[in-house]
Amino acid sequence: MSEPIPSSSWPRDLLLLVLALGAFYGFRLGSYPLANPDEGRNAEIPREMVASGDWVTPRLDGVNYFEKPPLVYWTVAGCLKLFGPSEWSVRAAPLLFALGGVLFTYAATRRIAGRSAGLAAALVLATSLLYYVLARFLILDMAVAVLMSATLFCFILGVREPPPAANTNAWTARRRWWFYGLYASAALATLAKGLMGFLVTGAVMFLWLLIFRQWKRLRPFYLPTGVLLFLAIAAPWHLLVAARNPTWFHRYVVYEHLERFLTSAASRAGPWWYFIPIILAGLFPWSGFLLAGVRRALRGGWTERDKNADSWFFVTWAGFIFLFFSVSHSKLPGYILPVFPALAVLIGRWLAPSLAEGWVRLRGGLRVFGFAAGLLAVALGAVVLRPAMIHGMSAAQAQALQPAAFTLAAVLLLGGILAPALARAGRAHAALATVAATIVLFCGVLTFAAANIQRPGTKDLALFVQAHAGPADRVLHYHEFFHDFTFYAGRVVDVVSFKGELELEEDAAARTSGRFMDDPAFRRLWRQPGRVLAVARKTDTPELFADPAFTYHLLAQSEDHYLFSNKP
Asked: What's the whole-model pTM score?
């Protein structure tokens, strides 16, 4: 039953959430360079859309790129046109999706379980560690998770609404609008991630209807007009890109959807339990409350499943998506993000009434929080004092991270001790506020360490090229393609003896352009009269630079890369 809350609290709550989360997610959003390869790629494709004016065919370094549909690219491109090129403007896209996801979670949970549960669910989702990180990181997973969860929220809210009465204007009925929201969200999810945008959510809905015998609640679900709405949103791009690109269907449907899921073609396999530690760590600091939230949703057990069918829906949501990605042969941490809104609802619905009972109900979760905070604090100190524990971490990088790591450890230890102590003293609200404050401070300090955590990119060299290279100069990447370079330099580049993510097999024009060459062709180009600039990793150049027949001028260098030219 929803608690009776005056409707006047809706706008106030939404405004406070927008302001608080805007500050939380937006703090120092543009203070560190784009990470390679993901952020560089997902910023460069929209940059090329804006530069070329072609918003149908995504391109990476001027090469057709059919791995993903374009919704996130369109969103980033819109931010670029509004705010100009910067780290802040491209990361505004995942931030806006994340903000929308929290607001929808609050609104849906409030309609189902009341205002307190809605606020608790919003707090849990917004401050979960994985959700925070992906809200500030330019990959597709946040948009996909938010749109899939919007589809499922619309579904459960729609079936909870009674069918419109015979004397009611059906067009204005709330149920109809929830189902139209379902179809629109599923279409947008399809434009963000492909067929799984509606297939996975459709499977969740079907299983819940089947297992819990809720078919009667489904009618009416406005299928004819809903399908038309879905197609009006999702179909135009698919038809246009297929008409313009003969190889699109095989790459996008056969390889990206079927082969990547059913085979190890993407080389991202993992064990069946791959996502379990990611969920537990990603839910920090709320992981300890998850079991209690699930137990509350399933109270009465299987025998009471019809009575508690709506609560079982969120368990079905999280359970099916977890199993779906666990059996997939392609696994990455961000793939599991669509379960987080459902888990936030389960935890929020348990937290809201449990606050009144204080320490007795909260002690398990707070003890887990204290233990995890202490463990993480010790791990942070150990890593920066003994960098050999982490593959690829240098002593210089560890030393640069020490101030932030020790500050983070202190924040965690203080929060891990203080929150349980406050709860034992009968101050349950203050205890949960301390948990939230701990993760907010942790994330805030983490932003100061972000530039030292990620591997060095090519931003400085790209800005040098942007300032000093002329339109007729050719810029090459030697034995690699540096995704961030093209975004910061504002130009596409030629590539020597490297393919990587460049889908040359999908673009005959790119293959015959002469921009993608082997080493002998590079040597011939280097000796021609025109000016050529090349970017390379320092580890790829010793043999080249040692060749007496190869003359070059070193223009600039960064920690890991050289910029050199055939002319002074």
From this structure: 0.94
